[in-house]
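Batch manifest, entry 17 of 40.
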Amino acid sequence: MSIRKTIFLLVSVTVFASCAKTYNIQGSSSITALDGSKLYLKTLQHEGMKAIDSCDVVHGKFHFTGLLDTICMANLFMDEEAIMPIVLEEGDITIRIDNAMQRVSGTPMNDSLYKFIDQHNQISSRMTELSHQQSQMLLEGIDEDEIDRKLNKEASRIAAEEDRLVTSFIVNNFDNVLGTGVFMMVTSQYRYPVLTPQIEDIMSKATDKFKNDTYVRDYYQTAQENEAHMNGMDDVAQPLPETAKPQHAAPLTNIPQQ
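Output type: structure tokens
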């Protein structure tokens, strides 16, 4: 090979390498039970959740790094248990896991995602507080019907606020991975794909890019088929086939409290 060709090849490799994007994740944990555990980064693929990277937790520290073809949504797993969602994007990503907080930060989409998660968890805490109020009101001797009227009204208001938060976040992120990722978290709480007023509202506003996402498209199509199946039944319900169930993913309700 001539010197000129050799130089051209080296320059080409250097340019290619400089254009390649990478993700870099530095994690820390104060939970001693995690020491020695193996963590996995998993993404949803055609065959289900598949590990794309793994590392060990050593003295409360762990590290992932790799090439990035495109920004994507992933989940941090310990064995088969989903711990938390994470956006794989270019830049330095920080994960912190302890008893008080579980958070991903350092890059724009992860910051946006966990700001949303903070807001969602605050609403969830208010809903949980209603059960404490119910117990306290019973101890105070307040009539159960009055308790139900008061707390049911407040529960409906909080539920509506949660729906607005989730729907607006998905709608505002229709054309990036945050929209499809949170849609996946929301729908994963169901045993099989179903149509709810919230899902119908989201899909009525959806962009073509969102509708054509593989998970969204498959979920919505299967949910429509399931609804047609259910509407065509007699009074005796029949179980839906296993293939009608969604792929495994961490539901929104499992997102850790901050």
